[in-house]
Structure formats: structure tokens, C-alpha cells
Design a protein that fits this description.
Order of helices and strands: EHEHEEEEHEEHHE
Helix content: 10-25%
Largest sheet: 9 strands, antiparallel
Structural class: alpha+beta
CATH class: Mainly Beta
CATH architecture: Roll
Number of helices: 5
Number of strands: 9
Radius of gyration: 18 Å
């Protein structure tokens, strides 16, 4: 996914390669039913991604779903997160690198006089992609610095022992779309 994605309202789902129609058909959530809630510009989608610190990462292990919250960084082209070298998340990613993710901000409740008319206030981005393990040491440190910078202006050195126990994963974004309600 490139930083020069189209911003017009006809390109509301951003997709790596192929036409926008292919992207709509390929996205697991398909075309948005409530068009007035769709986030149509890449700058607003990027703003949602940059506004949160937690991404919900969905994986599939055969027919068993697995979701986990992770801290992440975004460079405009890919998402990154880190993990211990072992565990369920890593085991699943080694078998199936296809992922889905959700990032949501500005949560609230839109109340109503009718019980069934309460709605969620939010801005949310959902996407799919392929995970890749970052092996090169300098790239791994660059990504860890990006993640840490989301929480502090302090800079850190990473002891080799810690680097050896840490895995960095890049999500190459394949499809991305946004939705908002209550704004």
C-alpha cells in the first residue's frame, strides 16, 4: 500500500494492487451498507490509525479464530508490532500469515428514547494484510523505536539479549477501509 493512495469518495477502500472494484469484492467486509458512515479519505483513515495505541489483531489457526490487542506503529505503508519469540500468536502466524486488524477511537454511546436505537459512537479502520517477520537488526530497531515513540520522547538502547528475545512483525496492508458514526 503506498502513501499516495487516492483520496476521492469513489476510492473508499484502499487496496494493494488491482482495481477498486476488486478491492471491494476482496475485502471481507464488502461494500459498506451505510455509505454516510464510510470514511472516504485516506488522510482521515490515517488519522484514525495514528490516533490509537492499540490495534486488535485477528488471526486464524485452521478454523479457530484468535484475536489479541497489540501496541503498534504505522509508517504509512505498513503496520508493525512486536512480540516474544514464542507463544500462540507467533505459532499461528508461522502457519498462516493472513491477518485482519481493527483500530478504533473516539468511543462513546449515542443514546435514544428507544432501547433498540442506542448506537456506538466511533471512528474505526478495519483492514487485512499479510504478516512478515522482520529479521534485519537495523530494521527491527527502527520499528521498535517507532513503537516506543508513540508512548514517550525518551530514547532507548536495546540490549542484545532483549533483541534476541523479541520478534518484530510487519503487516503488509492489502485492504483498508474506515467507518465513523456520531460525528
Amino acid at each position: 500500500m503506498s502513501g499516495d493512495a487516492p483520496e476521492d469518495a469513489t476510492n473508499t477502500i484502499f487496496h494493494k494492487g488491482g482495481s477498486m472494484r476488486d478491492a471491494i469484492e476482496a475485502h471481507p467486509h464488502g461494500p459498506m451498507r451505510r455509505k454516510e458512515r464510510e470514511i472516504t479519505g485516506r488522510p482521515e483513515i490515517d488519522a484514525v490509525i495514528h490516533s490509537s495505541n492499540v490495534m486488535y489483531l485477528a488471526l486464524a489457526d485452521d478454523s479457530i479464530p484468535f484475536v489479541v490487542p497489540v501496541f503498534y506503529a504505522y509508517d504509512g505503508a505498513a503496520l508493525y508490532f512486536h512480540s516474544a519469540r514464542t507463544g500462540a500468536k507467533i505459532d499461528i502466524l508461522k502457519r498462516n500469515r493472513n491477518v485482519c486488524f481493527a483500530i478504533s477511537v473516539d468511543h462513546g454511546v449515542i443514546t435514544s428514547d428507544a432501547a433498540c436505537d442506542f448506537e456506538a459512537r466511533h471512528r474505526t479502520v478495519i483492514g487485512t494484510g499479510a504478516a512478515a517477520f522482520v529479521e534485519e537488526r537495523a530494521e527491527k530497531i527502527r520499528v521498535l523505536d517507532m513503537i516506543v515513540a508513540r508512548f514517550t520522547t525518551d530514547t532507548f538502547e536495546y540490549p542484545e539479549t532483549n533483541l534476541g528475545h523479541t520478534v518484530v512483525i510487519r503487516i503488509d496492508i492489502e485492504a483498508l477501509k474506515g467507518k465513523k458514526h456520531g460525528f
